[in-house]
């Protein structure tokens, strides 16, 4: 690989999303296309809770390694987006409003007892990646958020149209994400474009984004195998 301009690097990052973001996964198509039962949608929300709940842990470990107040302030905003400020609910709390709206017991969701092993391993791999890899790779791994407004729009409009058990209120988690994600991306992308200034670093940021796409994909694979086809939930996992 030759050294790319920052613009060419951004194009290469976007091409990774075109190729492997979870918007292409069959489970996503079934979810927004109205092809799932209520129990299968509950399984999705319950498992995805672990992703939401783990995001602040990965952001906190990233903040700990940022070298300046300016950088830490920028990343701290994400912690507030997810954890809230004690007055306004954050994303984790809003995700529980979603699982409430789908009729799941909150204590059961938070206990993680019904989680698929595949979800646990994929999410834990993200937190560990951010803790152990370089700051540049850790920041680059957040860049799937470049692609999330698209999948969120598709999911929200499709679910509202196709399921009588889903209301706009149930899905309010997603509304703030449509403005928060582009704000997150503006910073992370400009950081990556400025700091990936060698071929080796450019290869690392591209690999970090592929890794992140893969762990999002693996979460939907786990749901598909357990609840759609061949529908074999592992021992102890949530049963609709
Ligand atoms: O709905 C989605 O498909 C989706 C995807 C992603 C993503 O691409 O990582 C995030 C979110 N949602 C999300 O809600 C969110 O808070 C979030 C934080 C992060 C991150 O890596 O820091 N990704 C995502």
Automatic annotation (TrEMBL):
Residues folding into a coiled coil are none
Domain Thiaminase-2/PQQC: where? Answer: 11-221
GO terms (BP aspect): pyrroloquinoline quinone biosynthetic process
Please name the pathway: Cofactor biosynthesis; pyrroloquinoline quinone biosynthesis
What GO MF annotations does this protein's record show?
pyrroloquinoline-quinone synthase activity
The highest taxon in the source lineage is: Bacteria
Q: What is this enzyme's EC? A: 1.3.3.11
Does the keyword Acetylation feature in the UniProt annotation?
Answer: no
What reaction is this protein's catalytic activity? 6-(2-amino-2-carboxyethyl)-7,8-dioxo-1,2,3,4,7,8-hexahydroquinoline-2,4-dicarboxylate + 3 O2 = pyrroloquinoline quinone + 2 H2O2 + 2 H2O + H(+)
Signal peptide positions (record): none
Q: Known SUPFAM superfamilies for this protein?
A: Heme oxygenase-like
Q: Does the keyword Transmembrane apply?
A: no
Its biological function?
Ring cyclization and eight-electron oxidation of 3a-(2-amino-2-carboxyethyl)-4,5-dioxo-4,5,6,7,8,9-hexahydroquinoline-7,9-dicarboxylic-acid to PQQ.
The family annotation for this protein states: Belongs to the PqqC family.
Q: Which PANTHER family match?
A: 4-AMINOBENZOATE SYNTHASE (PTHR40279:SF3), PQQC-LIKE PROTEIN (PTHR40279)
* Name under which the protein is recorded: Pyrroloquinoline-quinone synthase
Annotated organism of origin: Neoroseomonas lacus
